[in-house]
């Protein structure tokens, strides 16, 4: 199968600023960075490598467009966002191919991500007309008191590479629905999907300047983002990525007191109690762990299995993991694609080697994969480790790959303590049939998202976000729209 787009003009290689597709400014017109296919390291495109001048122009355009966009009636704005949803759906196959080309995930997953992205656009198109304020009971007669939601202003959106469609849609859709204008910087590894989505947004009728996007390499990203951090007109940052970068953004935003939505690192526990339905638990772990090859922020990073069912669970899990088909997206039978780049594979390799050196045992996988069909060094075998301990790197850091370290436990109190023994608190999972335990453990786990007998958590109607070093703010749901608004209190007197 070839990943050839039906509509080749979806591949955009320049910035979109003020409704125009433009090259770099400040004498850097020729500066480009390569976007490569992680499956075979082939070049897909050369994309404009933006800098400070491009970021400034994008902020200027967004600021200039804000007054008219915020004044657009909610119904009219919602119709534009809904049209964007329709165009995303109409181009789902091409967008899925683009995701598979630049990110590496199998095509079925790429198209599935497009559907997931579209669900957020549809949700927030509907929410745009449901953003109601409050009438506050007045303490004295002759007074009317109201709380009115208003858009925060210009929003800077910074997205990661692992879900190049879903992450940008999940941020831009509520921004537009709230009446904000946007400047965006997609991940350097996967800018093409984001650029294509912006093209479709303009075709849907998003006015010039309302949605601006600047592409940049890893080296140029600080120059772009620093402009938006310093600009007082940029009133909010929405970022998904690592905790150290999130902390930097929070520190640098303090000078202008920007509103922040930070979805940062995770270290999700997955607990299997002795009364769990083991087949259901294995199904849940497979769904949660191996989506996108384990390159997700909510995938289980530490798996705890009660000693009474440990061996049976590991046997079932190993059989399923060993049967996974690894290959490029161009192979329709592939279930796991390549990792995004060499750095990702090196980290996975380091974690596995560290675990083995500290006493873990490899049950399945544990190695890089090579072969005629695997035309890059970015493939790693889906792996199951047993006898994992808290002292191992894989227990302390996100592996962000297809590795399952299994730890045996004895008591509920013990496993809750281990699950919470991390600075992160994005997602957590557990399997049990005991209703009393379900309530106890749900309350005890320190995470923003908890899956109970369920491995697939995300939905556009649900609030997505973490606690502790996993950040703050929520995406999706009614709360996701509120994160792009502030409340204005209006007190009108003299009514009697």
TrEMBL record:
EC annotation?
1.2.1.-
Keyword vocabulary terms for this entry:
Oxidoreductase
Q: Which molecular function GO terms apply here?
A: oxidoreductase activity
Q: Which residues form the active site?
A: 263
Family recorded in the similarity comment = Belongs to the aldehyde dehydrogenase family.
Q: Which organism is it from?
A: Pseudaquabacterium inlustre
Q: Check the record and name the SUPFAM superfamilies matching this protein.
A: ALDH-like
- One Pfam family recorded for the sequence: Aldedh
Give the first-level EC class, as a single word.
Answer: oxidoreductase
* Domain Aldehyde dehydrogenase, residue spans: 31-490
**Is Oxidoreductase there in the keyword field?**
yes
Oxidoreductase is among the record's keywords: yes
Protein name per its UniProtKB record? NAD-dependent succinate-semialdehyde dehydrogenase
């Amino acid at each position: 199968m070839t990943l050839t787009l039906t509509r080749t003009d979806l591949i955009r290689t320049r910035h979109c600023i003020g409704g125009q597709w433009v090259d770099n400014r400040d004498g850097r017109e020729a500066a480009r960075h390569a976007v490569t296919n992680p499956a075979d390291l082939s070049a897909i495109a050369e994309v404009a490598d933006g800098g400070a001048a491009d970021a400034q122009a994008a902020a200027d355009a967004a600021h200039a467009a804000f007054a008219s966009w915020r004044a657009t009636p909610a119904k009219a704005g919602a119709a534009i966002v809904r049209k964007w949803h329709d165009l995303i759906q109409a181009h789902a196959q091409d967008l899925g191919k683009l995701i598979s080309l630049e990110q590496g995930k199998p095509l079925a997953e790429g198209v599935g991500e497009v559907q997931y992205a579209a669900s957020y656009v549809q949700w927030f198109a509907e929410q745009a007309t449901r953003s109601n304020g409050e009438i506050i009971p007045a303490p004295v007669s002759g007074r009317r008191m109201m709380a009115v939601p208003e858009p925060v202003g210009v929003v800077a959106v910074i997205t990661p590479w692992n879900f190049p469609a879903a992450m940008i849609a999940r941020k831009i859709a509520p921004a537009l629905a709230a009446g904000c204008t946007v400047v965006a910087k997609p991940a350097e590894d996967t800018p093409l999907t984001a650029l294509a989505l912006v093209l479709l947004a303009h075709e849907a009728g998003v006015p010039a300047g309302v949605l601006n996007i600047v592409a940049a390499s890893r080296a140029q990203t600080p120059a772009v983002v620093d402009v938006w951090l310093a600009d007082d007109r940029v009133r909010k940052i929405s970022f998904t990525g690592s905790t150290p970068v999130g902390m930097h953004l929070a520190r640098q935003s303090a000078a202008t007191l920007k509103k922040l939505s930070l979805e940062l690192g995770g270290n999700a526990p997955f607990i299997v109690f002795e009364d769990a339905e083991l087949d259901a638990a294995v199904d849940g772990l497979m769904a949660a762990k191996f989506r996108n090859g384990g390159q997700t922020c909510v995938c289980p990073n530490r798996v705890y299995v009660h000693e009474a069912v440990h061996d049976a669970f590991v046997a079932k899990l190993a059989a399923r993991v060993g049967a996974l088909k690894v290959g490029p997206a161009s192979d329709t039978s592939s279930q796991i694609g390549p990792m995004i780049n060499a750095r990702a594979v090196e980290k996975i390799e380091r974690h596995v080697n560290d675990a083995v050196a500290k006493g873990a045992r490899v049950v399945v996988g544990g190695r890089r994969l090579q072969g005629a069909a695997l035309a890059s060094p970015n493939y790693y075998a889906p792996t199951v480790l047993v006898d994992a301990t808290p002292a191992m790197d894989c227990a302390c850091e996100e592996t962000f790959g297809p590795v399952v370290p299994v730890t045996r436990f004895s008591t509920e109190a013990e496993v809750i303590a281990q699950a919470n023994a991390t600075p992160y608190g994005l997602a957590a999972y557990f399997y049990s049939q005991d209703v009393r335990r379900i309530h106890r453990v749900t309350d005890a786990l320190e995470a923003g998202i908890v899956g109970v007998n369920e491995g697939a958590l995300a939905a556009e109607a649900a609030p997505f976000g973490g606690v502790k070093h996993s950040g703050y703010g929520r995406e999706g749901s009614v709360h996701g729209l509120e994160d792009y608004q502030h409340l204005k209190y209006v007190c009108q007197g003299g009514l009697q």
